[in-house]
Amino acid sequence: MTFDTIIRGGTIATASDTFACDIGIRNGRIAALGDNLGTAGEIVDASGKLVLPGGIDSHVHISQPSGPDIVMADDFASATRSAAFGGNTMVLPFAMQQKGQSLREVVADYHRKADGQCYIDVSFHLIIADATDAVLGQELPALVHDGYTSFKVFMTYEGLALSDIEMLNVMSVARETGALVMIHAENYDAIRFLTDRLERAGKTEPHHHATSRPIPVEREATHRAISLAELVDVPIMIVHVSNGEAMEEIRRAQQRGLKVYGETCPQYLVLTEKDLEGLNMEGTKYVCSPPPRDKASQQACWQGMQQGVFSLFSSDHCPFRYDDPKGKLTPKGRTSFRWVPNGIPGVETRLPILFSEGVGKGRISLNEFVALTSTNHAKTYGLYPKKGTIAVGADADLAIWDPNREVTISQSRMHGGSDYTPYEGIAVQGWPVSTMVRGKFVVRDGELAGTLGAGEYVPRAKSDYAKPGGA
Ligand code: URP
Ligand code: ZN
Ligand code: ZN
Ligand code: ZN
């Protein structure tokens, strides 16, 4: 048998197993796993390395409009390049509806931005901001049918927040169409109340972003989202969970047999609200929602992953430049935390942070790492088994890791569009040295080897995770 490429001598890990064998790749797919596979156009030596399913980051924001005079730091080229250097082979950004926009228009707009501009594969979630009858009755079901099988709704943010009845209506469409609803759970009115009160007291520095949306804001919304989903009998994914109280709401729901899933992110494992207290405006570098909390919350997020309450670990990559009036230092943002764009870069550092802090420090197994960063994303969002595993027939989306390489995270080694990393100075052990999408290197031995436009759009199937529990 002959192959296009054989990856030889590596240790393979999937979500369930770790084993040593070679990988034969033909026509972009894994064609064989075994020893002495035969000849190939190219033999890649992976001895001493780990070969893992490429990371799938199912929560990233790219080229999203973020308010007047604010510009996101990444376009599809820079975001997918950065992702590839971080060991990812696929990202799932959001196609965000703005009030008054038809969803078809939204989807066409994001395809215009992404088509021909990606280094790795992409698929889109929708964001529903305008839950009109036309959107819910016609557009959304048609788009789910076409492979946009998940959508996010927001319980906060001006222009995005849905009321409870709108949430219920969107959830009903998800139930009817078999789509999965992702929920940003924070109480909008509570944040507005606290923000107004802080501003009246002159408390406007960046760290009050955290004070304005404390844990009860998130816990209450999480509880409410779960209750609404229970009424409709529809599965939901609570995204970017930051603390133990929200995590316990999800755990309780799961223990009652509800299909409620949870996601957490690197910022909730290694940052705290203290980081928002930096000198001058440095704290804006860490402004994201929900905000990083405290050490106990970090512990709880680890537990959530260890105990299976959280099935996904995503970056929530949402990059703005720091030293830029169109980024974190917007003129209005200098007057109050209220106006600082929310979000931080992280698509390139997600995997090394979890590998080092999780696998390296014995908090999770290598197989759990693969599940949390790749396999579960593919399963949750209708990409499995094409994506998210190393198996015969799957796409040859692989990351080759040097488990011993020691790296201090710094902006100088990042490949995205932002001008800072919130993880500056964190020392990690283990780094993805090569990334391959459908059998072609995108990053090889730390150098860009892919071509812009080689990344493809992947429509998604409906997920088993979205099937109602009590049907
Ligand atoms: O602050 C954040 N997380 N910005 C990104 C948008 C979101 O809510 O996920
Ligand atoms: Zn969100
Ligand atoms: Zn203060
Ligand atoms: Zn997000």
TrEMBL record:
The keyword Transmembrane helix appears for this protein: no
GO CC entries: cytosol
Any one Gene Ontology molecular-function term assigned to this protein's record: hydrolase activity, acting on carbon-nitrogen (but not peptide) bonds, in cyclic amides
Pfam families hit by this protein: Amidohydro_1
Record-stated family: Belongs to the metallo-dependent hydrolases superfamily. Hydantoinase/dihydropyrimidinase family.
PANTHER family referenced in this protein's UniProt entry, alphabetically: COLLAPSIN RESPONSE MEDIATOR PROTEIN (PTHR11647:SF1), HYDRANTOINASE/DIHYDROPYRIMIDINASE FAMILY MEMBER (PTHR11647)
Protein name from the UniProt record: Dihydropyrimidinase
